[in-house]
Amino acid sequence: MWENFEARLDENEREGSIPLRRVLFEVLRSSGLRPGAGITKKMVSLEFGAGERLVWEIQNPSNVFLHTKWRDSVETNGFATELRPYQRGMKDGGRHSALSRDWSFGDADCFVVRIEDADSLRRLIAVLLQSGDALMLNPAAITRWIERLRHFFPAFDRFDPPDPHFDEAERTYKLAIAAELRTAIEQAGSDQELADAVNTALAKSNLLQWRAYWPMSPKGDADREQLWPALRALVDAALGAADGHASALEAFVDAWIAAVPDGKPDPARQIAEFLFLHLAPDDGIYIRHSVRQDLWLEAVGSRFPDHASMADTYRDEWRFMQAVRAAFADRGLAPRDMIDVQSALWIVYNYKEEDVATFSREAIEAAMDAYDSYRKSGEHAAIFEAFGEPRDYWVRSTRARPGRVYPSKPIVGFLRSKTQLNGGWGQKADAAAQLHNAGYIIVDADDAPVTPPERYEHLIRDADRIRLCARNYYVEPARENGAADIAIRAGDLGRDMGLRDAFPAICSALGGEKFQKLANVPAPSHTLPNPSSSTVFTYQLASAEGHQTMTFEPMTAMPATTNLILYGPPGTGKTYATAWEAVRLCLGEVAAEPLRGDRDALMAEYRRLAGEGRIEFVTFHQSFAYEDFVEGLRPTTGVEQEGDDEAASTSGGFNLKPHAGVFKIISERARLDTGDAPAKRLDRSRPIYKIALGQRGSQEGRIREGLDGGLIHLGWGGDIDWSDERFDDFEEIRKTWNDQKDPDASGKDPNIEMLYAFRSGLQVGDYVVVSDGRDSYRAFGRVSGEYYFDADADFHPHRRSVEWIWRDDNGAERAPFYARNFRRQSAYRLDPDRIDWDALEAVVIDPNAERPVAGARPHVLIIDEINRANISKVFGELITLLETDKRLGCENEVRVRLPYSGTSFGVPANLHIIGTMNTADRSIALLDTALRRRFTFRELMPDIEELRQAVAARGLDAANLEGIDLCKLLHTINERIEYLFDREHQIGHAYFTGCRSRADVESVMRHKVIPLLAEYFYEDWSKVAAVLGDGDGTNGSHFVEARRLTAPAGFADDELGGDKLRWSVKARFDFSEFAA
C-alpha cells in the first residue's frame, strides 16, 4: 500500500516539487498510521486506532483533515483549525469531493489543520495516538500467531486453564523471579540494596541480554549517584498506578543516558519494562525492540512510530500489547495477564523448529486414536495418507491396544498438522526424536526397542529417560485404570526400554525424589536386593496426607569444623534437624536464630543456600563408590575443546576423562570461596582464549602496543568491519567472507574461524592469555570491551579492550597451568579440562592463591543414609582428611594425590559434614571404626513432648485428637517394640505430627506403622499383633485379627505343631485402648 502512496507523491512532485511534501510523507510512513483505502492524485487516507481516519492533501501538503470529534483535543494542544462541514443538498457536500468519499468522512463534518513542518505533524499524530483508542490489528496476523503458538505447544488450547508445557517454558520462572524481586525490594533498605535486588532479578531472567544491564551491575560503569535515585523512582512507579509508567520510564531513560558512558536509550527502556512486567503483570509490559518492530508491522500494517519521546514510545507499545491481549481474549484464549501476552509474542517471533515443545502423553495417545480411526474408516486421511506406507521409526503406545505399534511420522504429523517432516533422530523436531523426548519408546515394526544414537545431544537419556518411560508406561496407565498402586520391576522396565545391565541406574531413578515429583507419587517401598533386576518398586497412587517433620533444637554447641552424624529410628526428625544444622552452620548462630521453629522460613533459606552451592546433598547406597563420591573416569566421545585431531582415541573412538564427584566438587567450592571480600580468585567458569599479538622478536612493537594500550588485536578477517550484531552468527561471517572476499573459503579458513573466535566466541569477562611462543606466556587479562573495527590502525584492525591482570616481559612457563603446547593459531579457546587453575592463579594472582582465604564462607555436605554404603570403598584414602586438624590451613594439614586426575587435593576447614543414619536399617555398632572416630554422634529418639508441641502448633491436643490419646498410643507401641525387639526400631513421633483428625491417625497406622512393624518382625504377625495390643485375644482385636486355619485333608490337626493362623488388617480400627 505504501508503494501506491509513494507513486502518487512522485506524480505530484513531477508536476511541481514542494520540499515539505517529501518531509511529511516520511513522517507519516514512520508514524504507525496505516494506508487507508483511498489513494487519489490529490488526497490520500490513513487509518489509526479503531477505524479512525486522517486525510492528507498531497497536492497541498500542509493540509491535514480529521473528523470533528478530534477538534477540541487538537485545539487544546495548540493547533489552529478550520471547519469543513458537510452541506446537505450540495454536490459533494459543498467541499472537496475526496472529503466526502466512503474512505474519508462520508457525510460527516471534518476540519483542516495547517501543518508547517515535520515536528508539527509529529505532535499532531502524537495527540491522535495518545487518545487511548485501541489499535485495530490485522486478524490474519492474530490467526498466524495463534497457529504458531500451538505449533510449538501442541497441547495448548488456552492460557487459562493452563498448558503445563507452556507455563514451564515461558511463565513459571517469570512468576518466581517476580516473587523474589518483590520480596527483595521490600527488604532493601538502601539504594544499593535495591540495585542489587534488581540486578539479581535481571541476571536470573533471560529477557534481557546481559550487555543491556551490565552498566548498573556491580562491575558496571554507571554513575551510581545519578542512577540509583532514578532506579528507586522507577521501582516506586512500577509498584504504583499504571498511568505513571510512561513518564517514569522516560525519566529513567534520561537518567540512564546521563549516568552511563555512551548510554543508549533502549537498554534503559528494557530495564524499565522488565520491572513493569514483573511488578505489575496485569498492566505492565515488556517487549524486545526487534519483536515490536516486526510484529507491529505485520499486525498494524505500518512501521512502528519513530517517537522523539520515550514516554510516547511506551504508550504505543502498551496500546499494541493491550490490543494483542484483547485479540487473544476475543479468540477464546483467556490470557491471564501481560506475562502471557509477552511470552506468546516471544514464542511467535523467536522460536525455531528445534524449540518444538514436548508432546504430552494425552496428546500422543489421542493421535494414535486418530490413526486407529484412519485405519478403520479413512478418517483424517488428509494427513495420514500423505505419509504413505511406513518403513521405519515406529513408536509403542502406552495403552493396551490391539496393535500397540504405530509409525512415528504420521503420529507427529497429526500432532503438528503437517504432512512433511523428517522421521529420524537427527534434529530435535524430527518425529522419532520428539516422541523419544516425550518419554515414548521407539521400536521396529516387530515392537523391538531401537537404541537411540549416542551422538545426538538433543536426545534425553539415562535417568531422565528412565523416569519418563516409567511414568508413561506404568504409572499413568495404572492411574487411568483406577489402580490403588503400581509395582515396577527393574528388569521389566529395562527389557521394555531395551536397556542392558542398567539395573543400578534404573533402581536409582525409580527410587529417587525426582521420579516422585515427575509421576506425582509418594516414596515407594522396594524389595531386596536393591539394585537388582529383580528389585520391585511399589508406589501408592492414592496416599494419605504426608506427615510434617517436627521442629528440633540443637543440644550442644559445635566445634569450629563439624563432622556430625544424626542417628535414630525412622520418623524422629532427622530431616528437619539436618536442615537446621546445615543452615545454622552456614549463617552462624545469631543469623539463624530467627529461623528456629519456623519450618517454612528455614526450608526456604536451606533451598537458597543449596541454590548458591553452599549446601550439597547426597544419599549413600550399596552401590555407591569412590568414583561417584570423589572422582572417577568417564568415557567421552566429544570433540576436544581445542579441536585437535592428535588426541583421537585408540580405544574404540572414546576417551576416559576424570570426572569430579560431589565431595570433590563441594570441597573445591568451599576452598575457593572468597566470602564477602573482593574477589581474590579467577572466575573458573569462564573460558580462557589463547591470543597471539605478534611473533616474538620480529613483531615486538605490535605486542607492546597491545600490552601497553590494554587491547588485543587480530589480523585475520581482512578490512571488513564486523561490528554489526548479525555477525554474532558464525554463518553470517562465513557468508559475508564468501560474498566479499573468497567464495571458495570453508568454515575452517582462518579469516572465518579465527575472526569468529575473536569477535563472537570471546565474550566480555572471558580471559585471554598472550602467548610467547608455544611454551610460555607473557600476559593474562580479562576482556573488558566488545569487538570494534579500527579503520585507522596501522595493522590488525580488529580489536578489543582488555584489563591486564598480570604481565611480565620475561614470561612464565605454560606447562604448570596447561599441559598441552600452545597451537600456532592467533585466537582459540583452551581446553577447560586441561587448565590447572591453581597453578595459573599462583602466577597471575598470588603465590599462595590456592589456600583458602580467611573470610571464606562455611559450606555443608549432607550425606543421607551414611550407614548404607561401604565407607572404606567410598572415602578411600580421604578418610584421614576428614579430621579437623588435618584440614587445609590447619596445623597438621594433609593433602593427597588423587588417583585419576593426579591433582593435589585437601579438605578445607570451612566444609562441614552432616550425616544421617536410620538405626532400623543398620546398627551404629556396625559402622566403620575409622568413620566413628572422626564424627560426633547425636541420637534422635521418639519424643512425646515434641509430638505434643507439633500438634499444639495447629491448635489441636495430642492427648485428645477426636478421642485418641496420641501420646499414649506412641508411648505404648514403643514400649512393646523395645521389649520384643530393641530400642533402635521404635516408631518416630514425626509420623503423627501431621495428623489433624481421627482419619489421619488411622491412615498413618494403616499405611505407615503396621507395614513398618511387619518389616521389623519379618512378617511374624503374632509379634505385630502383640505390639498393637492384639496379641492375646482377650480384649478383642483392635488393628489386626487372626482366624484359625483348619488343617486341609491329609494333615492331622497337630501334625505341624499347633494352631495355624491367618492374619489380616481390620477394615476399621479400634482405638479404645488409647482413648482420651
Automatic annotation (TrEMBL):
List the InterPro entries.
Answer: AAA+_ATPase, ATPase_dyneun-rel_AAA, Methyl-DNA_Rec/Restrict_Enz, P-loop_NTPase
- Tell me where in this chain the AAA+ ATPase domain is found: 560-945
Q: Which Gene3D superfamilies match?
A: P-loop containing nucleotide triphosphate hydrolases (3.40.50.300)
What's this protein's name? AAA+ ATPase domain-containing protein
Q: A single Pfam family, by name?
A: AAA_5
Q: Where does this protein come from, organism-wise?
A: Limoniibacter endophyticus
One of the record's GO molecular function terms: ATP binding
